[in-house]
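Q: My collaborator sent me two sequences in one message, no labels, and asked for predicted structures for both. Can we handle them in order? The first one she listed is below.
A: Yes, handling them in the order given. First sequence, followed by its structure tokens:
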Amino acid sequence: MTRKKLFALLIVFCLLLNLLPVFDEISYAESEQKVVKVRVEGKTETLFDREITVTDEVYGFDLLKNAVGENNIDYTYYEAWNSYFINGVLGEEGERAQDYDTGWCYYVKTENSIQQPMVGIDKLRVEGIEELVFYIGAYNTAPPYEFLTNVPTIHVTQNGSQYELTVTKSVYNEETGNYDVVPIKDVDVNVSYIGSLKTDDNGKVSFEIGKGIYKVTISKGKAYPEIVRQHFFIYGEDSEKIIKAVEDLKRYYKKDGEYSFREAIALNHTGKNINEFGDINNRFETSATQSASAYAGNIIGLIAAGKDPQEYVNLLVASQTNEGKFIVGQWDDWPTTIAYSIIALDMAGAEYDVQKAVEALMSKATEEGHFGDVDTTAMCIMALANHKDIQGVTDLINSSLAYLKSQQLDTGGFQAWGAENPYSISAVIQALIANDINPLSQEWIKNGNTMLDALLSFKVNDHFEYTSQWGTDISMATEQAFAALADLYRGKSMYHDVRLVEIANYETLAVERIGSGIFQKGEEAHLSVKVKNNTQEGQQITLIVALFDTNENKMINYTYVTKTLGTDEEIITGGFLIPESGEYEVRAFLWDNLEDMNVLADPLVVDVE
């Protein structure tokens, strides 16, 4: 076969993904690896990047459908070929231009290599695969029919706080018949807090990091992707503190209850495995409050939960006044309401009068060039961060940053109403990250203390507490600290990074209560559930039956059963004696185990009389 014919065959195969029945199934060596990372790289942005815990998925196409939801894949089945044609993923399709075409391709990463298998995605078995990457690839439509999109190799070297990246590609050498390693010039390397850099003639770029976690994104090409986008994290000093705090908080939030919009988006932002998103989807509930700020929170929470926010987008857009404000209720004429409305509508990609909204927010600023206090100023410049193209915004952000700097305490933190608190610290951390500023940089260290040091001083075990003359707050202190730590964990603002991906049905178990009715005080409560394993493999499960005091929303008793569930239905029972007085309800949870606490099904709730 000639080189040109081979290229033509590869191009057609890459674009069709599946329409080559002459190839048999490809599978990799059996591995204990039960988690596969699935990444979807569109033309200009990453569309999806999460882990899938493999249960009954056999082929790559199964993983894609379970990752992004089958309704987010446009595909056509061809009976003659007994295979599928992938037209689009997450709303993005290939395109035809004058000199090139693009379409969906894929490659796999195993323990030792990156490969582009010559087999359709519905024939690719998932055993032994660590990462499955779908990407928009381009090829030219005239001889010599070459691929225009490369899968790059990235080499990282470190010398203290100095990092050097080298980006290369493999190019076929007609003379030797081998592949040569060639540096890629002018690759766009975006590093959190540092900005955009470009590789030199040797494919190299250097930079220095400070404290915290830095996200690195590597891409090239505007007309079409010249390389498949890559991203990874670099961990500087204090990274361990951030990671531990986030892990503690994720465990804390797995225990019980509905998620607020901040909790939902923080969990989305820090989530790695797709099962975590099913939990967000199940436990986020919209607020029934009739106000613009509530609508904005509902939009943010719904996006984080993978649900359609359009109802609240429509309501919020309709509430925008001629002045640019968002007014629904009597308490909506506040700068923070405008700020959160802008953030929510930007996240949703909504059409609203951006110019008027930004001008309305800017009109709330003081003559000194900030918004009156630390918390409000921080929240407002979070919203303004996306709109620096509007006249006056950059100057107002800069004067607001100067104000925040002047208010920083020697502890590294901030105060409101005369007392240092986690709310103000969290707001400033998020505001700085939204504006591509590292909150842990030398500029923001006071008396040797960082904002992270100040924030963690309010951490108690796996949550945060703030005690004032009005008592001890845990809920709001914890959720606001979680939001700030989530941004530090990702090196990016959650309000800029999180996008809507509809959550598919990830429940691997069907759970049904046996019997009905309510429980009585002073009597034994026995809750029985029928659990059906929807996979073809045994699965460890833990059923927790808990008694909650509804006045204090506090668990006062529980029992649990742990077992390995086969492929048949099983009935599991848990229970205890209910006290004779008090207000209670019984809640049942199904987790994988008591250590990881991954939610496997929606909780059941039974009233107590």
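Q: And the one she listed second?
A: Here it is, processed independently of the first:
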Amino acid sequence: MTHNPNQPTDTPTDRPDRPEDKGADIVQLDTARDRRQRGPIELLDDDEFAPAPGTATGPADGPVLEGQIVRVDSNDGPDRGDWLADLENKARDRRPIVPLWLRSRTEAIDTLKWVGAHFAHVAGFQVTRTPLYAGRLAVRAPRGLARLIAGMVKWTFDLEGMPVRLSAVGKADAEGYLKLSRQRDSRVRLRVWIAGTALVTLLIAGVLIASAPTAVQWSALAVALAVLGTLGKPADRPLINRAVIPTTVERLTSDIVIRALTAIGVSGINAKNADVRFVAPITRDGPGWRADIDLPYGVTVADVLDRRDRMASALRRPLGCIWPEGDSSVHEGRLILWVGDKDLSKTIVKSPLLKAASHDVFKGIPFGNDPRGRLVTVPLIQHNILIGSLPGQGKTASVRELAAGIVLDATTEAWFHELKGTGDLDPYEKVCHRYISGIEDEAIAYAADSLTLLRQEVMRRAAALKTLPSDLCPDKRVTRQIADKRSLGLHPLVAIFDECQNLFAHPEYGKQAGMDAEFIIKLGRALGVVLILATQRPDKDSLPTGISANVSIRFCLRVAGQIENDMILGTSAYKNGIRATMFVPEADAGTGYLVGATPMPKVVKAAYLDTPATQRIADRAHALHMAAGTLSGHATGERPEAAAPAFDLLADIAAVVGPREAKVWNEVVVERLADVRPEIYGPWAELEGAAKTAQLTNALKPYGVKTGQVWGTTEDGKGANRIGIVRDDIITAITKRDDKRGSGAAS
């Protein structure tokens, strides 16, 4: 046997396991690893993959040895169990057995209503034009009679065969002519009898009709005119007008879609390499066409959204008809292209609340329509809502629609603050527990005080909800059953702050208002307390990040750039293709991206309520609250600067601050108050730092007591200046309040 010096003396299969051999294998593995680290892997052709003579390929799952070739792609077939996974992948997007419009009761009813209205319109249109059609038939009847006589003569005497017979005569084809003549004579003999019989029948029918009642005569005349008029109609002028003008929108096809995608200039999609795959047939979806597309590898839906205007040009449709969106639940390259028949910007969405007798906020509030005309409902309970846009894009109109649903629920307590001063929410004033409209400091202070009271209300509700039995409140959150029990005081409470940037950016009230709002948003959602904030300046100063990061529902109309977009819609929204910058100024007013209310972000056009419509809804809501006995506060004529608390704060402070203590730090006063009334002041004491100090400062503002820098000594004996109160100010405030009460009682 010849020994090959290039071949190892021991192979892995016949040599025994020795420690030194294992060490060699480890060295060889390290060598292979070093090769991978030195440079990129080169994929070889099949011929280059062929192992060299004397080189072992080795087992697929064994150690990689020196000189061994390992294939990157395995040629082994799938495991026996993979067929189920393959089937699941293929069936991932099953087409529904029942049409989508039949799976939803609301959509089925809406579809049937539309079909009924369509045919009712067609019938009414045609019935009203019956005299016109009768006149046309009468005018065309003589021509029809002439055509009928000429046709009968031509048919009876076989005149249509005359050109053929003349052609035979011209060719001197005697035999052919004789055959044609015999055929013509045979036809004429039979047709003369048929025509004669028909003529005699018509004459007899005419005689009978002449002696028949008048109604029969008119009916026969109408039938004759209808038949003759139909025979006499011009080819280019139909008798009946169209009741519905057919759409001129071009049918969406795969060729048109590919042409549009290659024309918008996205890198990775071009005429030579348009690797676009349609994952479902292009179908009608509402008033438009829908195409489900897998974009080429490496192209994302965001790339297409950036060029929506170019796509509109490529599809030869208005920009308001083109609504591409992604389906990230599949992958980032799944594009759902919807092309509408009508421009969404020219559509006015009517609110279902215009004719609603009442509404239940626990079922959400009908907010608007998506581009396909489907109603979108915004859940309210257990959510907070943030609305943002540039000025004039429909932000306040969106707030009006939400407010309509709120006031039409007689169990809901409304606190509305319109901090622009234009009176957009004034119609709802008559049903609000607290209401203010203005931009001056007094209005801002009133709104800030509302947040302070809401914070106290959240703490009160938390304690009240905790005491409810588990059978009534198993999930420790407000439900419709609990809200209907008015004695519990856990009914829905919704506070709207329109133009909230004027509150949060205020130099005196803004910081504490932001802290209160963040507290309410985090804890109030399960307690029936809801905040709706609307702003036209979404930045970190006007909209604290603690607020924007914790709201669960966001509606963003047109904004200027990426920063404002992400402030409203959430971090990375712009990167993920949710871009409110794509909306056109003024043309897309009222249209925005809605996030958090539906499983996927959705473009929605909010319903529009003008001032008269808003007033009618407010009048109906006022009657509902009057009947239910739920009007309170501002709606009953009260105009307090702050709602009176269930405790006497000034008296409590006077009790815990002794006569010998001229000045005391706020934090010390709060700790003492918590010892006296833990159920009231305990949550204040749990706060840290400036938040604890601010609680007392804000609570004293309605009484005209101001806090300031107070010198004191810390526990370790060091002196420090901190925010505190002057006891004489507390005593003065008590005296003024008591004098005012006394004079009021005397009068």
